[in-house]
């Protein structure tokens, strides 16, 4: 994702000014990051001029003692050739393009259907359905900008759409990064409270300003968290234009702080809420005396499992890269190359939540499928609509039972029935 797939371009030229010439491994890692994981070895002449200048200056100013204790091969310091692993970036580009294309096609259809079916009930819907609508809006926003990512990957990270779209697409991506998770966590809490404390006030009540204040607060907070990173995203034109994140000062301190906040607010806290509430929901459903669909309790655990599978690999790689930033001597060059090579892949896999959420929280719900059929029927000519069976909603005798069991159902959107 250009500035999105490898938003870890260090401010190498300034970092090198404060780097000891003895720390060859750290110099190498700065150089590796500056290469943006394009699979090149040695000093590339297409690096930004400030980095090239400082790298050459670093080698030229090494003391005689340091030079005598540094192994050279064909006149090049050993740490430039420290990496022995060869990773094919062409295969990665093909995989990323196919992932983005699949997410765009399937996610666009799914989230458009979810919004289309539920939008008319947005003012009267309960808190669960209200969160689902906002979550789908967030996912649809990031899906719409997928073509930019696909083209950028195809052109080997070259950005051709100017500075404005560079910053806007990254901002949209990061807003979804937080807002989708926030609304999912609040939806899970709302579901848990509706099951265990039906008399207590809802987090997103149907009437009053509380719903809109809380909803607006989540969007504003997501925008603020995204803006912390987005202020350093810009279009940088060297040999080729690219959309990069490049803080001007104190990159290591800034990056560690931002990734720490990201891990806490986007993963640790939401995961704690989602997993805990889903476990309690499963227990409540199992002990409910009038629940017939206990075989579906496992779906609650699938909700937690899918969320963790989408986000855990990304945050693990991010944590390891963070550790490497704090102490470049811990990871070997090959280990760092693998981590940095895989970062864009695991980051793209996080977007599968845009496909998984509509399936888990909408299409598995019988009430949503009925609403989808009813919505489609309204667009069928009247002479054809009269031929549709009257049992689309499960029949009059079953409606009361469905309503009674909706609070015990494992499908999140069934609460909105």
UniProtKB/TrEMBL annotation:
Amino acid composition bias (Polar residues), ranges on this chain: 407-417
Keywords carried by this UniProt record: Cell membrane, G-protein coupled receptor, Membrane, Receptor, Transducer, Transmembrane, Transmembrane helix
Gene Ontology CC annotation, any one: plasma membrane
Transmembrane segments: 94-116, 128-151, 171-189, 210-228, 254-285, 297-318, 338-364
SUPFAM superfamilies: Family A G protein-coupled receptor-like (SSF81321)
Primary location group: membrane
UniProt xrefs under InterPro entries: GPCR_Rhodpsn, GPCR_Rhodpsn_7TM, GPER1-like
Coiled-coil stretches noted in the UniProt entry, renumbered to this chain: none
Region described as Disordered: 388-417
UniProt keyword Transmembrane helix present: yes
Subcellular location: Cell membrane
Membrane topology according to the record: Multi-pass membrane protein
GO molecular function: G protein-coupled receptor activity
Record has Transmembrane helix as a keyword: yes
Domain G-protein coupled receptors family 1 profile: 110-361
Family annotation (PANTHER family): G-PROTEIN COUPLED RECEPTOR 182 (PTHR24226:SF0), G-PROTEIN COUPLED RECEPTOR 182 AND ESTROGEN RECEPTOR 1 (PTHR24226)
Protein name: G-protein coupled receptor 182
Species name: Solea senegalensis
Origin organism lineage: Eukaryota, Metazoa, Chordata, Craniata, Vertebrata
């Amino acid at each position: 994702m250009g500035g999105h797939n490898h938003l870890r371009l260090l401010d190498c030229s300034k970092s090198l000014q404060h780097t000891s010439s003895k720390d060859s491994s750290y110099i190498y890692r700065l150089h590796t990051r500056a290469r943006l994981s394009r699979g090149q070895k040695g000093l590339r002449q297409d690096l930004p001029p400030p980095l090239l200048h400082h790298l050459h200056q670093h080698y030229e100013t090494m003391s005689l003692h340091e030079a005598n204790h540094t192994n050279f091969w064909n006149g090049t310091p050993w740490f430039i050739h420290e990496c022995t692993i060869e990773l094919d970036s062409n295969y990665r580009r093909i995989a990323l393009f196919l992932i983005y294309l699949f997410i765009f096609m399937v996610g666009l259809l799914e989230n458009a259907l979810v919004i289309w079916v539920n939008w008319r009930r947005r003012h009267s819907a309960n808190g669960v359905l209200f969160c689902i609508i906002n979550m789908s809006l967030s996912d649809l926003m990031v899906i719409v900008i997928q073509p930019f990512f696909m083209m950028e990957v195809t052109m080997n990270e070259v950005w051709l759409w100017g500075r404005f779209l560079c910053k806007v697409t990254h901002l949209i991506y990061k807003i979804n990064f937080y807002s989708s998770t926030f609304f999912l966590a609040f939806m899970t809490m709302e579901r848990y409270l509706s099951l265990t404390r039906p008399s207590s006030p809802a987090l997103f009540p149907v009437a009053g300003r509380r719903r809109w204040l809380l909803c607006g607060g989540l969007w504003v907070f997501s925008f603020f968290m995204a803006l912390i990173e987005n202020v350093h995203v810009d279009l940088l034109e060297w040999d080729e234009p690219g959309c990069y994140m490049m803080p001007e000062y104190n990159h290591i301190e800034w990056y560690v702080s931002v990734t720490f906040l990201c891990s806490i607010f986007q993963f640790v806290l939401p995961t704690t809420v989602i997993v805990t509430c889903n476990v309690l929901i499963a227990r409540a459903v199992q002990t409910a005396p009038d629940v017939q669909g206990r075989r579906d309790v496992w779906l609650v655990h699938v909700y937690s499992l899918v969320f963790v599978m989408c986000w855990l690999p990304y945050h693990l790689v991010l944590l390891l890269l963070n550790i490497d930033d704090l102490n470049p001597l811990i990871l070997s060059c090959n280990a760092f190359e693998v981590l940095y090579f895989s970062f864009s892949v695991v980051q793209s896999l996080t977007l599968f939540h845009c496909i998984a959420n509509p399936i888990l929280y909408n299409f598995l719900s019988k009430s949503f499928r009925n609403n989808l059929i009813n919505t489609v029927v309204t667009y069928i000519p009247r002479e054809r609509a009269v031929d549709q069976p009257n049992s689309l909603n499960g029949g009059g005798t079953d409606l009361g039972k469905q309503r009674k069991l909706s609070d015990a159902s494992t499908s999140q959107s069934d609460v909105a029935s």
